[in-house]
């Protein structure tokens, strides 16, 4: 069984796929890095940023760049691997030896599964890298003005702040709620929700919450509610100016963190359909690596006469079409015209069905 699984033809196809995949997965991010550095180097230097910090910021930005390009890298590798085998009559020779097209493509599908796993890992590393990139480039973007209304702010360690009004000039807030998500089954680290009528920022003490209630929620004992006149949360370290910062984008939050953020917004009555689509895409996009290989393998057999130019054009056309489908279904899910999870998975379903139809028509 092992000998058949690691047939020399399997190793050859896998090797050809891997070379193109690695070149694409690393080449595109490096190209984007060079372009971005050329456009923004003067801006970074004007901030007196150390050159080492600028260089490291691009290293931390790599996980997101690679995550976004992996499905396209799988498609390029699939199209050029199958196209090359077709042009050199290697597929014809394999078929003459009794090896079907389906069997030839098994190493490609195996490699796409590995790529999907890599994409899942990168999707969790990218938010961490993005935060570090922002810090190194000193690119915290602040909202205009000195006041902000009806917003949620996702902090670290599963903490979410919801404020009805924030005034930077006076260092005050109205109708504030602090939620800290605890560990399930661990009574020593419970979930708590603090609601206060107002809060005041003190430079030496941080935020002091006034006239409110603290609810401690546990699975093992009755919930506890505590009324208070004033309370200081030692972990609420964000200054009024920092709370004016633009809220985190979904790509800047990990999957679990995004889930906590969605639940907090749902409790406040906010529309979270668009963010739910983004969360589902964190799983759907990696699985795209498998779907795109399923779709691209039979499609690549048409590159025999067109050569490399046809392969590049075909890959780009499929990539652009897939991205358009994602944006379209994201808009549909965001407007609640379709279930957000279904909207995120719809492009994969359509391309997967198309891939199965193309595979059924391939001469084996």
Question: What general outline do the C-alpha atoms trace?
Answer: elongated
Distance between the termini: 23 Å
Number of domains: 2
Kindly state the number of beta strands. Answer: 6
> Main β-sheet: number of strands, strand sense, barrel status?
6 strands, antiparallel
Helix content: 55-70%
Classification by helices and strands = alpha+beta
Low-confidence stretches: none
Radius of gyration: 26 Å
Strand neighbour order, sheet with most strands: 1-2-3-4-5-6
What's the order of the H and E elements?
HHHHHHEEEEEEHHHHH
Mean pLDDT: 83
β content, as a range? 15-25%
- Helical stretch count? 11
Can you describe what's shown?
With 364 residues, this protein is of the alpha+beta class. The protein has two domains: 2-139 and 276-361, no CATH class; 147-245, no CATH class. 60% of the residues lie in helices and 16% in strands. It is built from eleven helices and six strands. The protein has helices at 2-5, 8-46, 51-87, 90-96, 101-104, 106-137, 240-243, 255-267, 273-299, 307-334, 340-361; strands spanning 147-154, 159-167, 172-180, 191-202, 206-217, 224-232. The chain has a six-stranded antiparallel sheet. Strand 5 (206-217) and strand 6 form a beta hairpin. Helix 3 runs parallel beside helix 9, helix 9 (273-299) packs parallel to helix 11 (340-361) and helix 10 packs antiparallel against helix 11. The radius of gyration is 26 Å and the shape is elongated. The relative contact order is 0.11. The mean pLDDT is 83.
């Amino acid at each position: 069984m092992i000998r058949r699984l690691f047939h020399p033809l399997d190793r050859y196809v896998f090797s050809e796929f891997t070379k193109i995949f690695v070149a694409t997965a690393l080449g595109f991010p490096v190209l984007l890095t060079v372009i971005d550095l050329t456009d923004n180097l003067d801006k970074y230097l004007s901030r007196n940023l150390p050159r080492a910090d600028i260089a490291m910021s691009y290293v931390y930005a790599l996980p997101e760049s690679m995550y976004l390009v992996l499905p396209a890298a799988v498609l390029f590798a699939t199209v050029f691997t199958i196209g090359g085998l077709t042009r050199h009559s290697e597929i014809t020779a394999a078929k003459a030896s009794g090896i079907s097209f389906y069997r030839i493509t098994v190493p490609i599908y195996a490699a796409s599964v590995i790529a999907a796993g890599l994409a899942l890992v990168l999707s969790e590393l990218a938010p961490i890298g993005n935060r570090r990139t922002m810090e190194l480039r000193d690119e915290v973007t602040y909202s205009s003005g000195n006041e902000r209304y009806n917003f949620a702010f996702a902090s670290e360690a599963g903490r979410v702040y919801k404020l009805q009004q924030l005034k930077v000039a006076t260092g005050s807030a109205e109708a504030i709620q602090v939620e800290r998500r605890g560990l399930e089954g661990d009574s020593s680290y419970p979930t708590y929700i603090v609601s206060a009528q107002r809060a005041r920022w003190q430079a030496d003490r941080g935020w002091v919450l006034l006239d409110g209630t603290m609810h401690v929620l546990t699975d093992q004992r009755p919930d506890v509610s505590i009324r208070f006149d004033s309370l200081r949360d030692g972990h609420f370290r964000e200054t009024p100016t920092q709370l004016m910062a633009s809220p985190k984008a979904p790509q800047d939050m990990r999957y679990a963190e995004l889930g906590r953020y969605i639940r907090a917004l749902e409790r406040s009555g906010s529309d979270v359909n668009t963010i739910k689509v983004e969360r589902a895409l964190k799983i759907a996009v990696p699985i795209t690596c498998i779907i795109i290989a399923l779709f691209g393998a039979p499609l690549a057999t048409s590159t025999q006469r067109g050569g490399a130019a046809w392969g590049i054009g075909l890959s780009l056309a499929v990539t652009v079409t897939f991205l358009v489908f994602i944006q379209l279904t994201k808009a549909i899910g965001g407007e609640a015209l379709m279930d957000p999870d279904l909207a995120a998975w719809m492009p994969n379903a359509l391309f997967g069905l198309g891939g199965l139809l193309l595979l059924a028509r391939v001469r084996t």
